[in-house]
Write a structure and sequence with these properties.
The protein is an alpha/beta fold. It contains 11 helices and 9 strands. The chain has a 7-stranded parallel β-sheet, with helices on both faces. Strands 7-9 form a two-stranded parallel ribbon. Residues 18-189 form the NAD(P)-binding domain.
Length: 294
């Protein structure tokens, strides 16, 4: 599926930044089945969570030489980074190292949504803007909000205290596995190595939090409700649960986008890239129902 590039003496080398994250780990589990060399980029030397056969490259974003070394000999790069105030600087530093070392294509994990001052949407916009100035092929993947965010509702659902400021707004949640499948397809695409593209990734249908509550009611065999709160009330609840202000504000920002149905878009991109339909929210709820049980 992937023909070795002129830079590769043997199997092509694919580097994965964010290798132990949700998308990165699912992506690596697929890449190891292909005739490619997989290099996991990590800020620690802990490789216990990586499959056998995956090489490890330890990077320090404050030491450019470690980024250059990690990119040396790499053909293609998957770029993901956990949400943090360092995200813009770190991703740009890795992009620059990839360009300097002759990487042919970058697949960047971004986010779906309009220009916004909300984190991390504004951070991804800054990174995308920098990537657009680089002389390198790239694929930007812009997924809607991950369905995994519903795991945060596990204990509140079990305790009958689930709620938020999303109202009846719609959001088209996407399964992590569909994002990983899309990244896999983009990384192994030989036909568009020098192309610069962006894709919007969504699930098959937009849903509201009350609709998710109804689905959980059927799966759990008891009534689950989504308690509507004002943004101020929800922020107070989040802080009282032990979250710091940074995380609380991130989650409150998502509720705002859900309330306004900003992420309700439905696309056919997952099917176009992967050949299969995106997984519905109901599948994820069924697979993870134990998270919500008392």
């Amino acid at each position: 599926m992937f023909n070795p590039s002129k830079r590769s003496a043997g199997r092509p080398r694919i580097a994965v930044a964010g290798a132990t994250g949700r998308v990165g780990s699912a992506l690596i589990s697929k890449l190891v089945t292909e005739p490619v060399e997989v290099v996991a980029l990590t800020r620690t030397s802990d490789a216990e969570r990586l499959p056998s056969g995956v090489s490890l490259a330890t990077v320090d974003f404050d030491a450019r030489s470690t980024l250059d070394n990690a990119m040396r000999g790499v053909d293609r790069l998957f770029l993901a980074h956990g949400t943090s105030p360092r995200q813009v600087a770190n991703e740009i530093a890795l992009i620059d190292a990839a360009v300097a070392e002759g990487v042919s294509h970058i697949v960047k994990l971004s986010v779906l949504g309009p220009p916004s001052r909300l984190h991390p949407f504004d951070w991804h916009a800054q990174i995308e803007a920098h990537l657009a100035t680089c002389d390198i092929g790239f694929t930007v993947l812009r997924p809607s909000s991950f369905v995994d965010i519903l795991a945060r509702a596990g204990a509140p659902v079990a305790n009958d205290t689930w709620g938020g400021a999303a109202g009846d707004g719609l959001v088209n949640l996407i399964d992590t596995r569909d994002v990983a499948d899309s990244a896999f397809a983009a990384l192994l695409d030989d036909a568009h190595v020098t192309s610069q593209r962006a894709y919007h990734l969504t699930g098959p249908k937009a849903v509201s939090m009350p609709e998710i509550a109804n689905e959980l009611s059927g799966l759990l065999g008891r009534v689950v409700t989504y308690q509507h709160r004002s943004p101020a009330e929800q922020r107070e609840k989040l802080l009282a649960s032990g979250l710091n202000e940074f995380v609380a504000d991130l989650l409150l920002g998502l509720d705002r986008l859900f309330y306004e149905s900003v992420l309700a878009e439905t696309t056919s991109t997952v099917r176009s890239l992967t050949g299969h339909a995106p997984r519905p929210v109901t599948d994820w709820l069924s697979d993870n129902i134990s998270v919500f049980q008392k």
